[in-house]
Design a protein that fits this description.
alpha+beta; Beta Polymerase, domain 2; 3-stranded antiparallel beta sheet; 5 strands; 20% helix; NADH dehydrogenase (ubiquinone) activity; signal; translocase
């Protein structure tokens, strides 16, 4: 049994490791729970099979403190989480450990702060570069 399958079957014994090999994160999002509170990263996993009318779904929420927002990346299990984890990093500031390309994807690299946090202060001046 692969290390990934062993870990997933330990954490989610109801579904077994075979569930996770065919499941894909349909939606991954991150949000600021409350001002001064914590951040959340949410994964909605759906197992889709041919001939199944009601697919099995699992929602996983990971809460992390704002002072050190780091959680493990699921990129190496589901490569489709690449864009979503990068967007969550860019907008909310959650760092995903072992993500191969964790950098800003929507905002310029020089942008300061995390725009979707509730304590974010909007700058008074925006400089638009390369707006062709």
């Amino acid at each position: 049994m692969a290390k990934r399958d062993l870990l997933l079957s330990l954490f989610f014994p109801r579904f077994g490791s075979s569930f996770w090999t065919v499941a894909e994160p349909a939606i991954q999002c991150a949000y600021d729970v409350a001002p001064g509170g914590c951040l959340a990263s949410v994964y909605h996993l759906t197992r889709i099979q041919y001939g199944i009318d009601n697919p099995e779904e699992v929602c996983i929420k990971v809460f992390v403190r704002k002072d050190n927002p780091r959680i493990p990346s699921v990129f190496w299990i589901w490569r489709s989480a690449d864009f979503q984890e990068r967007e969550s990093y860019d907008m909310v500031g959650i760092s995903y450990d072992n993500h191969p390309r964790l950098k800003r994807i929507l905002m310029p690299e020089s942008w300061v702060g995390w725009p979707l946090r509730k304590d974010y202060i909007t700058p008074n001046f925006y400089e638009i570069q390369d707006a062709h």
